[in-house]
Design brief:
The chain is mainly α. It is 76% helix and 0% strand.
Length: 128
């Protein structure tokens, strides 16, 4: 391979000088919540299979899913569902060519973050 003399050229933006943008963070969170929803779906299916399998197995699975850790996972899944849904609505808005200005995109980013928290709390108040 040829010896490439890079000289004093700067490296790509590095963590020490790169500032994350809200749009990047919300995009990454949208991907993470999409994958996290799979975990919640698998747990729900596991619970349904346990219900169909018998009382003893259902009691074991139900005890796991209704434990403190299980409750945290389910609340996290609920938040992920709201966040991912609102992120999808934001992308639908962008697909129409609207709200693409930086300031508006930032407001939408904050709206999905705060909106997902508010919707999660409201949902918990309704179902509990």
């Amino acid at each position: 391979m040829a010896d490439v003399n890079r000289g004093d050229r700067p490296l790509s933006p590095h963590i020490s000088i790169y500032r994350l943008q809200l749009n990047s963070v919300t995009s990454i969170l949208n991907r993470i919540t999409g994958n996290a929803l799979l975990v919640g779906a698998f747990l729900l299916v596991w619970w349904l299979i346990a219900a169909a399998s018998g009382a003893a197995y259902f009691a074991t699975v139900d005890a796991i899913l209704t434990s403190v850790i299980g409750d945290l996972v389910m609340v996290g899944s609920l938040w992920a569902l709201w966040y991912h849904t609102l992120g999808g609505v934001r992308h639908l808005i962008w697909d129409t060519g609207r709200a693409l200005e930086v300031a508006t995109a930032d407001r939408l980013g904050w709206a999905i973050i705060l909106g997902s928290v508010v919707m999660t709390v409201l949902t918990l108040l309704v179902i509990v």
